[in-house]
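Because discrete structure vocabularies remain unfamiliar, we turn briefly to a single example record, giving the amino acid sequence and backbone structure tokens:
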Amino acid sequence: MSLFSNPEILRNARIQLRPRKLLIAAGICAALSLAIGYAFAYSPDGLAGSDGNSFFQTILILQAIVLVIGGGLACLHGVQREKDQSTYDFQRLTRLSPFELSLGKLFGPPLLALFIFLCFMPAAVVGAVAAHTPPTIFLAAYGLLILGSIVYDAFALAMSLFLRRGTVTWAIIGFLAIVGGTSSGFGYTLGVISPFGSIPLIRRHDWSLPLSGSWVQSNPAVGFRDLFLGFPVHHALVLFILYLTLLAWFIPAIARNIKRDPANYELYTPPQALGFLCYLNFIVFAFCQWQPLGSYAERHPVSIPPLDVQSFLLAMNIILFFIFGFILLRNRNQVRRLLHSGAAGHLETWPAPYLFLGALIVGVAMILVIQWKRDPSLEWSLPVAIFRVTYFAFWLICDFLFLQWTKIQRGGHSLVMGVLYLGVYYACAITIVASLHAEHNPFTAIFLPTPLFVLDTAAWSAHLGVWILALILQIAAGVAFVVLQRRTLANLQPHVSSISMNAPASASL
């Protein structure tokens, strides 16, 4: 089945692309293009503008807003609206394969946004000609914009699968926050990663990489120069590869869930989730900042201390591991189904083994990269680095054992309550520690991981026993939650009497 004959795309086309609606959209786009073009034409600098502020750039910004935000919000409602209208179950029972239905949901809802995008193309061509934009830059900018918008649409569609009634507003706010957060540069080593990153590209008239300098470091989007493991690469190439690899992660995740019962959704299998975690960490490691930025680097050409680099990487991994951990959590129905099928395995430690394995892989890779890139003259301690990774792993395990235990409790919002309890604990602990000015005290590591990020060789040698005690207590708390999970799982186990009652009557004859 071709993309253009996909029933889901054709259904969305009949709903969205009605002649009257298309005529209104085309008229609005034409009026905006003429008004903006008139304003630029009679400005002192003309359509080409000055300092990169051209008619073409303005039109491209409008097209990016329509494709990324308009298309993303349409996909965000793609599955959720069908659930609210009680039509989603009929779509799951169609003859379409999961991949075909996923493509239909991905390219069907944003059709109107795509039409509006195309209505601005004549104005964009006029602006590109007036600004003397090279054809290769023009094609690359639109290639990045279209491919990037597909990535954000796929992410929004994956969010739509897991939305419940009453959570759409929060999902929209979260999606807009992600678009806004990824539309700013990440420093000298990685520029804008959202499709809005195609806008600075049209300011350039060649594909050469600028030389290193403070103006490039303070304006990564203008320079369009990234550092991959310390080597300069063009930002456009980075974005193309990044978008293609993200699509390779998002689309299979959507396809494996889109025809399942919503109660049985599982974004990734554990090995896939572990692979996704390693992929995200590879991006973080590859574009990690190893040198100071801006004019400070020119006055003080020194490397960042390796222990500070590890602290930064561990802090980044808090977000990544929490994403990884929430992907692995199972609800009460999934656990009960596994118990009744006899394939439950070691559910009392779920998802601790995968979190520990992920922390081990990421931690070893982190240490190896730092060993390779570090300045030998700066402070570095391998035992401290290993202890940090170990403590980090067991701290994560303890938190997610608690969350897994709360998720298999009775009630429709058990995980929400678990997150709330965990948040209250950390809020109270941080408040008390801050009032005592004990953020860097080794004993604080018994309750909070904050001292871990400022641990150096002097603090390690002076309070070795306290650090080991903090690690042991983290492990003990994890064991306590394992015991609580065992008790809950014992109540979910199928009883022998119920099995015998459900046996065929002929068995008793």
Q: What stands out?
A: The first strand starts at residue 225 and ends at 228. The first helix runs from residue 7 to 16. Confidence is low (pLDDT under 50) at residues 213-222, 293-301, 496-509. The chain has two domains: 1-265, 270-493.
